[in-house]
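Homework-ish question, so no full write-ups if that breaks the rules, but can someone show me the predicted structure for this set?
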Amino acid sequence: MLSFLTCWLGLTLGALIYLGYGFLYKLDVAFQAGKAMIFLVLLAIGRVTYALVLYPKYFTPFKYLPTPPRRWLLTGNQTSLFREFPWDVARRWSETIPNNGLIRYYVALSNERLLVTSPKGLSKVLVHGAYNYTKTNLARFAIQRFTGNGLGFLDGEEHRMQKKGLLPAFATGHIKRLIPKFWAKAALMVSLIERSLENDSSKDQRQRSDSPVVPLHYWGTRATLDIIGVVGMGYDFDTLTHPHNELSEQYRKMFLEPSNAFNWLELLGNYIDFRILLTLPVRKNRELTQGSQYIRQVAERVIHHKIQKQQRQSEESPPDDDIVAIALASGTFTEQQLVDHVMTFLVAGHESTATAFEWAMYELGRRPAMQSRLREEIRTHISSMQVEGRGTTTAAGTHLATTIESLPYLNAVCSEVLRFYPFVPFATRVASRDNTIQGTFVPKGTVVAFAAHATNHDAALWGLDADRFDPERATSNFASLAFSAGPKSCIGQEWTRAELVCLVGATVGRFEIALLNPMDNHLKRGKTIKLRNGVRARVKVVDGCQWGFAQETIPVPLSRIINLNPSGSS
Ligand code: HEM
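A: Not a homework solution, just the prediction itself:
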């Protein structure tokens, strides 16, 4: 394929030089131009014929694999370029095209891909042969400029070593000790929502009979950002109480709202080095650079401050227990490596957990019976602890953590949310060396795709009712690809579960939630499964229990410890 493409480009260039030569030496220009044009048209026809007919039929190494029936030059096997979500298309193909675990398909301009559909094939790509596959250049250039060499972009031995160094901080036992911190932020969020309800109803109490509408996704986004600060670094970003502080404004700039422009850029990225596109002098590019530089500088100062603090720490004072402190204490990481990891936690761990909270609110907000059952479980077990006035430190904290972890329905609802709405519903990898999947030879450079959305809704794995949101079903980590699988799977799984049960438990335990528009399930354009309009719900306080938390579980705001002005010194 490549050699054909090279020949074709060479011939096209030749035709253009020939045309230029004619102009330069004032040969019979019209005659020369006509000949060159005919040549170029023939070349274009040749290229299209090769891409559409000859390559897929005779030259591809995957010609024996099943493929979707129709193919167009511009859109490949998809009928439209951006209207359908790739995870929906992948699922449709997995279910309707008879296959033994691999399907070949074509994207725009006849670029060939392999879709892996069977658990056996997935385990080859994600588990046993994980280090034979790497992220695409597009993902690398788009995300790596924020995260540097964080875990997501390391490969082979380097990845193995650094992940091993970080794992103790993310292990179940350690995350359990941090549950009071998750809870403290969840309880603070609930109390701030409650305050906003009071303000809202006092404004126009007389005209209103309904309870006020609350954008729950907006609160979730702030709580989850603060949690990364507290649990990840031991500092409070304080965006729940100060939503417009400098840090959250700059942080927002780091993200690209999905749009058609981005889709076109992605398409162009197949042909033009994506790095060139990222340096175009457009406003969004400038904002992305500005936001990420600011956040990186903050991360650098945080790490630097923590190193100094650790050096000063006396033997009597208890050591910090946040993720960065544990990683630092291991002595495995350089300052720069830790900055990259912190940036990765922000990119990988914020929007993902905020979205999971959003979907939990969406499902519960349109299922009153499920919500009541959950509220009863939460109140029976957690409210009593708070009513007795116990805080969330030490023994009381352990008690809270053990209780929350053992609530069956709360944990089942959260697991079902993660299965039903996988945050990375469709992903691609590139083979970094020749290998095989289920006996099929996969040459280096092949792009391989898989869809967690299809696996997590596969009737063969989850039963015929796989498309029903049902916390009663037995979930299994092996069948769910919510966190991917194998050596490169999500390091934040236990963190996510702890965070989600605290946020969902504290919210549903205190409020009755009714979705404003239960039928609105329109999704945002983009790479993740996310509601286009967020979760807007009528929220009513259910009397009877108010959450408390020990103040000391929330550290002092970051702004009071280090100078958040990028030009200032710490
Ligand atoms: C709902 C919450 C989350 C979901 C669904 C999720 C999902 C995933 C998935 C699917 C991957 C694999 C991505 C890939 O290979 O392309 C991943 C990787 C990763 N996640 Fe998460 N994640 C979540 C939360 C978090 C949190 C809270 C953190 C940390 C604070 C985190 C840190 C990471 C890191 C560092 C990686 C790269 C791991 C590696 O390459 O070894 N994630 N996550």
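Now go work out the reasoning yourself. Hint: Residues 387-392 have pLDDT under 50 and may be disordered.
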